Amino acid sequence: MRTVLRGARRAGHLLALPALLLALWWAATARSTDFYFPPLHTILSAFGKTWFSGRLVDDVLPSVLRLAAGYAGAVAVGVGIGVLIGSHRRVRLAAEPVLEFFRAVPPPVLIPVLMLFTGIGDTMKITVIVLGSMWPVLLNTAEGVRAIDDVLADTARSYGLTGAARLRRLVLPSAAPQIVTGMRQALSISIILMVISEMFAGSSGLGYTIVQFQRGFAVPEMWSGILLLGLLGFALSLLFGRFESRVLRWHRGRRQAQRGKS
Fold first, then answer.
1. Mean pLDDT value of segment 191-215
2. Does residue 174 lie in a domain region?
3. Would you say residue 262 has pLDDT above 60?
4. What is the pLDDT of residue 64?
5. Boundaries of domain holding 187
6. Is residue 84 part of a domain?
7. Rounded CA gap, 130 and 79, in Å?
C-alpha cells in the first residue's frame, strides 16, 4: 500500500506542472481567432487525426529509429574515446586541441557536407546525431576516468587487474556517474539534431512533416507535431530516469551510507 501511495505521490509531483501549463494554455487560447495560434482544443483534435494514422508508422517510427541509432552510436563512440583519453595523459594532451576544434563546430553546419558523401538518407541523419551528441558523453567519461580514486587504482594494480578486467571492474564503475550524466545531456541534443536533420533534408520523419505542415499553412497540424515532439522528449526522459536509477543504484546507496556516517 505504501508503495502505491508513494508511486501516486511521485506521479502527482511529476505531472502537476505540465497539467497546470496545459490548463493555462487551454484557458488562454479558448477564444482565440488568430490563425497562427489556434485554440488548444483545435490542436488536440488535429493531434488525433494526424498522428494516430499512417503517419505513426511513416513518420514517427523512422524518427525514433534514427534517434535510437544515432544516440547509441554517440554513447559508444563517446565512452570508447573518453576512456582512451582519460586513461592516458599523453593521448589527452595530443588530442585536446583537435577535440576542442571539432567540439566548437555546430553539427547542423555539417549537414551540407555529409549530404555530398552520404546523400539525404538515414546515414546522414544518424551521422549528424552521432557527431553532435557524442561530446557530452566523451568529455564526462574522460573526466570520470581521470578522477578514479588513487587508492582504488593501487588496489586494482596489486590484485593484478589489467586490460578488460580493469576496465570492467574499476574504470567503468568508477566513471559511471559522470558517464550517465553525459548520456542524459546527449539525449536532449540527439532529439534536437534528429529534428534539424529531418527539417534540413528528408522525405519522412517528424521534422520533415512539421515543415510540410508549416509550408502548407496547416497550422493546427504543425502545432500538434510540436506537441508530439515534447511528449516524445518527456517519455524518453522518464525512461532514462528509470535506467539511471537502476545503473546508479549502488552509487546512491553508497552516498546515503556516507551521509549516515557523517
1. 90
2. yes
3. no
4. 94
5. 61-261
6. yes
7. 12
Name residues whose C-beta falls within 8 Å of residue 120's C-beta, 6 or more positions apart in sequence: 201, 202, 203
How many CB atoms are located within 10 Å of the residue 71 CB? 25
Q: Cell digits for 16?
A: 502537476
Share of the chain above pLDDT 70, in %: 91
Euclidean distance between CA atoms 205 and 228, whole angstroms: 12
DSSP secondary structure, the chain, as one string: -HHHHHHHHHHHHHHHHHHHHHHHHHHHHTT---SSS--HHHHHHHHHHHHSSTHIIIIIHHHHHHHHHHHHHHHHHHHHHHHHHHH-HHHHHHHHHHHHHHHTS-GGGGHHHHHHHHTTSHHHHHHHHHHHHHHHHHHHHHHHHHT--HHHHHHHHHTT--HHHHIIIIIHHHHHHHHHHHHHHHHHHHHHHHHHHHHHS-SSSHHHHHHHHHHTT-HHHHHHHHHHHHHHHHHHHHHHHHHHHHHTHHHHHHHHHHHHH-
Q: What is the pLDDT of residue 251?
A: 60
Total structural domains within the chain:
1
Query: Binning pLDDT at 50, 70 and 90, where does residue 178 land?
Result: very high
Q: How confident is the model at residue 258 (pLDDT cuts 50, 70, 90)?
A: low
For the chain, percent of residues with pLDDT exceeding 90:
40
Residue 102 sits in a domain of what CATH number?
Answer: 1.10.3720.10
Domain for residue 35, yes or no?
no
Q: What is the pLDDT of residues 60-80, one digit of tens each?
A: 999 999 999 999 999 999 999
Task: Residue 67: name the closest of 219, 255, 239 by CA.
Answer: 239
Does 45 reside within a domain?
no
Q: What average pLDDT score do residues 18-30 get?
A: 88
